[in-house]
Amino acid sequence: MNQLDFPILSLMMGLPMLAAIVCLFLSAQAARWLALATTLALFVLGVVLWANYDIGGPQWQYVERAELFGNFAWALGIDGISMMLIMLTVFLMPICIGASWEAIQTRVGEYMAAFLFMEVLMIGVFAAQDIFLFYILFEAGLIPMYLIIGIWGGANRIYASYKFFLYTLLGSVVMLIAMLWMVQDAGTSDIPTLLNYDFAPEAQTWLWLAFFASFAVKMPMWPVHTWLPDAHVQAPTAGSVILAGVLLKMGGYGFLRFSLPMFPEASEQFIWLVFGLSMVAVVYTSLVALVQQDMKKLIAYSSVAHMAIVTLGLFAFNRQGIEGAIIVMLSHGLVSGALFLCVGVIYDRLHTREIDRYGGLSINMPKYAILFLLFTMASIGLPGTSGFVGEFLSLIGLYKVNSWVTLVATTGIILGAGYMLYLYRRVAFGELVHEDVKAMPDLSAREMALLAPIAAAVMWMGVYPESFMAPIRGDVGALVARIDRAAPEGDAHLKMGAAKPALKAEAHGEAH
Amino acid sequence: MNLASSLWLVSPELFLSVSGLILLMVSAWSQEKAARLVTILAVAALFGAATLLMVLSHNPDFKGGADAFDGLYRMDAFGSSAKFLIYLAAIISLIVAPRFFLAGGKYRSEYPVLILFATIGMGMMVSASDMMTLYIGLELNSLAAYVLASFIRTDIRSSEAGLKYFVLGALASGMLLFGISLVYGFAGSTSFAVIGETLTGDLSTGPLIGLVLVLSGLAFKISAVPFHMWTPDVYEGAPTPVTAFFASAPKVAAIALTARVIVEAFGGQTSAWQQIIVFVALASIILGAVAAIGQQNIKRLLAYSSINNVGFLLIGLAAGTPAGISAMMFYLAIYVAMTLGSFICVLEMRDRDGKPLESLASLAGLSQTRPGLAAAFAVFMFSLAGIPPLFGFWGKFLVFDAAVAAGMLPLAVIGIAASVIGAFYYIKVVKIIYFDDPAGEIVKTGHKSENILIGLMALFVSPLGYLSIPFIAPITTTAAAALF
Questions:
Q1: In A53-155, which residue ranges form alpha helices assigned H by DSSP?
Q2: Which of A30, A39, A101, A444 shows the greatest Cβ crowding within 10 Å of its Cβ?
Q3: Do A135 and B388 touch (CB under 8 A)?
Q4: What is the nearest CA distance from A180 to chain B, expressed in angstroms?
Q5: Which of A165, A184, A189, A214 to mutate to test the interface with B (most CBs of B within 10 A)?
Q6: Which of B417, B423, B434 sits opposite A151 (nearest CB)?
C-alpha cells in the first residue's frame, strides 16, 4: 500500500472529522482542548509523513485507493508539493486553535468543529488523486469558511461572508463542467493518469479558461481579488490566518496540479493574460496597500501582490520559476499567517485595527516589536528569511522568459518594502501618544508560543531552504519535463559565445 | 395476455384501491375517532403495496417488464423504482400529518384515504403506456390533490389554495386532453408505442401542436416555468404536510411520466421536444432562483426551490439519453429526501401554543435555541443549493454529466452558472438561522417522530450519502434502460 503499510492520509482526514463531530457536543473548554490535541496529533502525523517520505522515490507516495462511490474513487496520494502544503496546513492549524483560545468566547464547540472540518478538507484537497474527489473537497471548504466569517466575524461580516461564498462558487462551477468533459474525453478521473493525457489543443483553450476562472478567484488574481480584503477584515484572526495561509494556496496548487501539466499548450497561449494580470496586481495592489488605514486590509492587499509573484513564477515554465513559486507559497503561508496573528495580538488588546490608533509599541511591547519586525522583513523578502528565497528564485525564472515583466515585478518588491516598513513605523516606532496603548502588556506566554514556532520556520526556510526544496525537486522536474514542449522562448536570446581560439594558435595556423 | 396475469401486474394499485375503499368505509362510520387508526392502516397498506411491488419486480417472468390490459399499462423497472419513491414520500406525509392537524383543531380520517387515492393515481401515471391510462392516473391524482390542498376548510388560505389549484389544474387538463386528441388524430392510436412508430420524420403542424400541448399539460403538473404560477400560492396555502406531499410524490410521478411520454411516444422526434425541454429547464432554474430571493415565507421559498430543482431534473431529461434518465431518477431520489426533510423542518417551526410559524424571520438564531434542527436545516439548504460535500451535489453532478456527454455544453454551462443565483437564497436561510440574533419564537422541544425522520433524511443527504451510490446507481441504470 505505502511505506507505512497504513492509510495515514485517510487517518489524517478521519481524525479531525471525528473530533469535529465530538466538539459539537462538548463544553467550551473541553472543545478547545480537544481541538488543540487533535491538531497537534495531526502535526505529529504530518512529521511522520515527512520523515518517511522517500525523496527521489516514486512520484506518488502513501497512495491509497478505495472504489467507494461508483463514478469516482476515494483515491489519495501525495507528491512532494502536496506534502509541503499539507505540512503547512498541519503546522498552522494548532496555531489557529491557540489564537482563538481567548478571542472566541461564544459557541466555541461549533467554532472548533468548523476549523477541524476545514482541516479535513484542506488536507483532502492536497491529497486527492481523483479529480471529482478534489472538486468536492475544494468546494466544500466554502461551507465552514462561510460559517466562520458569518458567525464569529466583525461588524460587516454578513456582507463579507456572502461575497466570499458567491464569488468563489461562481468561479468554480464552470470548472466542474470542464472536469466532466475531461473525464469523458480521457475515460478516467484519476489525476496521475490525466496528468499525462494530451487533450486536443483547441479543447485545451476552453478547459484552461474554465479552470482559470476558479483558480484565479481562489488565488486571488487582480481583478477578481475584491472578495479577499473583505473576507480578511471581517474574519476572526484564526480565520484570516487559515484563509491567507492555506486557502489561497489552493489556487496556486490548482495551477500547478491542473492548468500547467494538463493543458501545457493553452498555458503557453495565455501567458500574456497571466503575466498582464499579475503585473497589474503587483503594482496596483501594492499601491493600494500603501494607503490603507486598516492593518488587516493592508496585509490582505499585500497577499494579492505576493500571489501575483507566485503566478508569474509558475508561468515562467522553468525550474527556478516553479520552485520559487512553491517556496513563495509556503513562505507566504507562514509570514502572512504570522502577520495576521500579530494584528490579532494587538487587536485583542485595543479592539481596533486602525493603524493610527497605535504607535510606539516598541517601547512597551519589545518582544512583540521584535517578532513583528522579523515577519515584516520576511514579507519584504530580506535575505535570511523565507521570503527572499522564493521571490529571488521566481524572479530568476521569470527573467529567463521576459525581462520587462521581471522589471515590473521587481518594482513590486520595492513597493512591498515601502508599505510594510511604513506600516511598521506607524505601529511600532514613534512616541507612545495614546494612553490606552501605553497600558498594553507585552506578549503573553500563549502568544509567544504561537509566534515563536512560525519565526523559527521562517528563519529555517530562509537559511537552509534545501530542507523544503529537496522533496519538491523531483516533482518540479517532472512538471518541467511535461510542459517543456510548450515552453515559451525567452526574450533575452542568451547565447553562449563561440570559444575564441587562443591567439597563439591562430598565429601559428596562419603561419602555415 | 389474460386477465389474471394483467391483474397480477397491477396488484400494487389494486391492493391500494381495495384498502382505500375499505378505509373510506371505516372513516365514514367512525368519524374522527378512528383517524389515527386509519392513518396507521394506510401506512400499512402502502407498505403492503411496496412489498407486492418488490415481489413483482423480482419475478423472473417480468424481468424486462410486461404489458397489462393489452398495452394500456406497463410494469417495468422504471415504473417500479418511481413507485417506490412515491410510496416512501406518501408514507412520510402520513406519519407527520396527525400531530400537525391536531394542533390546529381536529384530524379527520379522510386525509389518509385521500393520500391513498392520490398514490394510486400516481402509480397509474408512472406505469401508463397509453394516453388514456395517463389521463386517468393524472386526474385521479389531481382530484385527490385538490381536496387535500383545501383540507383545512376553515382556513381561508387553504381554501384559496385548493380553488386556485383546481381552476388552473382543470385548464392544464384541458390542454393535455386537447393535445392528446390531436396526437391521436394524426397517429391513429393512443398507445405510446404506436404513436412512436407512426410519428416519424418531420412533424407536420398538427401533431407538433399536439406535442406542445401535451408537454404543456405535463409541465403544469411538474410546476415547470412557464406553468409554475400556481405553485407558490398552493404550497403556501395548503397545510404543511400536504405541501410536503405535493413537493415530493406527485413531482416524482409527473416527471417520470413526462420522461416516459417523451422517450416512448416521441422518442423519434428529438429535435421537436428537446428545444422545449431545454427552454423549460433553463427558465425554471433561472426563475426559480431569482423569484425566491425576495420571499419572506419559508413555504413560498421552498416552492420556488422546487421549481428551481425541477429545472435541474429536466436537464437530465433534455439529454434524452439513458444516462440522462438515470441521472434524473437519482436526482429525484435525493430531491425527495431533501424536500421532505426541509418540509418536516418547517413542521417543527411552531410557537409555544403549537401554532405553525412560516416566516423566515421566525427562524432567526435557531442555531442557538435548537442546534440540531438548525444543523439539519442548514444541511438541507446547502444540499438543495448543490454545494458539495452534501449529497444534493451528486444529483446535479449526474445531470450535468449526462448533458455534457450528450454534447449539450451550453445548456450545462448556463444551468450551472444559474445555480449560483440559487445559492444566494439558500445561504440566506442559513444566514438567518446561524448569524442572526435569536428571535426565540420557535418552541424548544421537538416532536420525536419528526426528529427521527429529519435525522434520517439529513443523514442521507450528508456526505455519508455518497456511500449509497454503488447501491442506488444500478437501480437507476436499470430503470432508465427499461425505457429505451
A1: 80-99, 108-127, 131-140, 142-152
A2: A39
A3: yes
A4: 6
A5: A165
A6: B434
| Residues of chain A found within 8 Å of residue B418, distances taken between Cβ atoms | none
Give B478 to chain A, closest Cα distance, Å.
15
Residues of A in contact with B371 (CB under 8 A): 24, 110
Residue in A70, A150, A176 nearest the CB of B435: A150
Find the CB nearest A151 among B388, B389, B435.
B435
Rounded CA-CA distance A393/A407 in Å is 14
Cell of A314: 509558475
Q: Which residue matches cell numbers 403495496?
A: B49
Distance between alpha carbon A265 and the CA centroid of its chain, in Å? 25
Give B235's contacts (C-beta < 8 A, 6+ positions apart).
Answer: B243, B246, B247, B299, B300, B302, B303, B306
Q: Looking at the predicted complex, does its ipTM rise above 0.85?
A: yes
**pTM score:** 0.92
pLDDT in tens, chain A (512 residues): 466 678 888 989 999 999 999 998 988 899 999 999 999 999 999 999 999 888 888 888 888 888 888 788 899 999 999 999 999 999 999 999 999 888 888 888 899 999 999 999 999 999 999 999 999 999 998 999 999 999 998 888 899 999 999 989 988 888 999 999 999 998 888 999 998 888 898 899 999 999 999 999 988 888 888 999 888 888 999 999 999 889 999 999 999 999 999 999 999 889 999 999 999 999 999 999 999 888 899 999 999 999 999 999 999 888 999 999 999 999 999 999 999 999 998 888 888 888 888 888 888 888 999 999 999 999 998 898 998 999 999 999 999 888 899 999 998 889 999 999 999 998 888 888 888 888 888 888 899 999 999 999 999 999 999 999 999 998 999 999 988 888 888 777 666 777 776 665 555 555 45
Q: How far apart are CA A509 and CA A503, in angstroms?
A: 10
